[in-house]
């Protein structure tokens, strides 16, 4: 495999994709007064914060609640911790947010954290969907669908977390 990286999305494109996803979330939740964005630590949470800011700039009649979920990805069973009580999402529309959807394990674990909470609906939002799903998890909102081989890696840099300019690279 080559060590050369290919730019998938630059800073401007990431912003455009983020804004489009925010519009889709608003349209899909037009009748909702409150939306809960659940950002998967770390980059998913940063991406969720950005979506929250964009949604709040676009509409003023929605409360956007942000929850950070931390998943222990190397475990074979669900271990997730949230910064707000899970019940905060009760009877609300919930969107689970991550930077990249690959196998679906991380999103499945994040969704599982809310399994015992009555929700109006649950959706997923990702910046990049790689389409290597091993779990029955699909992105409801996505910035870019990308067909890759399994050996390739998609790396997303978000300025707030990585201290680098926003970019998504195929390595």
What does this entry look like structurally?
The chain is an alpha/beta fold and 171 residues long. It has one domain (6-170): Rossmann fold (3-Layer(aba) Sandwich), CATH 3.40.50. It is built from 4 helices and 9 strands. The strands form 2 sheets. It has a 6-stranded mixed β-sheet, with helices on both faces. A 3-stranded antiparallel β-sheet has the order 1-9-8. β5 (93-101), α3 (105-112) and β6 (121-129) form a beta-alpha-beta unit. α1 crosses α2 (43-58). The longest helix has 18 residues, at 11-28. It is globular and about 45 Å long. The mean pLDDT is 93.
Give the DSSP E fraction (strand runs of 2 or more residues): 25-35%
User: How many independent structural domains?
Assistant: 1
Low-confidence stretches: none
- How many DSSP helices? 4
Secondary-structure element string: EHEHEEEHEEEHE
Query: Structural class of the helices, strands and pairings?
Result: alpha/beta
Distance between the termini: 9 Å
Principal-axis shape: globular
Q: Output the CATH topology.
A: Rossmann fold
The count of DSSP E runs of length 2 or more, i.e. the number of strands, is 9
Mean pLDDT: 93
| CATH architectural label | 3-Layer(aba) Sandwich
Radius of gyration: 16 Å
How much helix is in the residues?
25-40%
* Largest beta-sheet details: 6 strands, mixed
* Main sheet: strand order: 4-3-2-5-6-7
Pfam family, one: Pribosyltran
Organism: Sphingobacterium alimentarium
Keywords: Glycosyltransferase, Transferase
GO molecular function, one term: glycosyltransferase activity
């Amino acid at each position: 495999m080559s060590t050369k990286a290919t730019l998938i999305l630059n800073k401007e494109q990431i912003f455009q994709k983020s804004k489009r996803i925010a519009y889709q979330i608003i349209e899909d939740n037009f009748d909702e007064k409150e939306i809960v964005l659940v950002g998967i630590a770390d980059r998913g949470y940063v991406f969720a914060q950005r979506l929250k800011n964009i949604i709040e700039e676009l509409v003023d009649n929605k409360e956007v609640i942000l929850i950070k979920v931390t998943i222990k990805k190397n475990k074979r069973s669900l271990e997730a911790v949230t910064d707000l009580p899970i019940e905060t999402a009760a009877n609300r529309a919930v969107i689970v947010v991550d930077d990249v959807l690959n196998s679906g394990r991380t999103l499945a674990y994040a969704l599982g954290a809310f399994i015992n909470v009555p929700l109006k609906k649950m959706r997923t939002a990702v910046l990049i969907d790689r389409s290597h799903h091993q779990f029955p998890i699909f992105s409801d909102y996505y910035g870019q669908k990308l067909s890759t081989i399994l050996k390739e890696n998609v790396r997303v840099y978000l300025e707030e977390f990585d201290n680098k300019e926003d970019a998504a690279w195929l390595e």
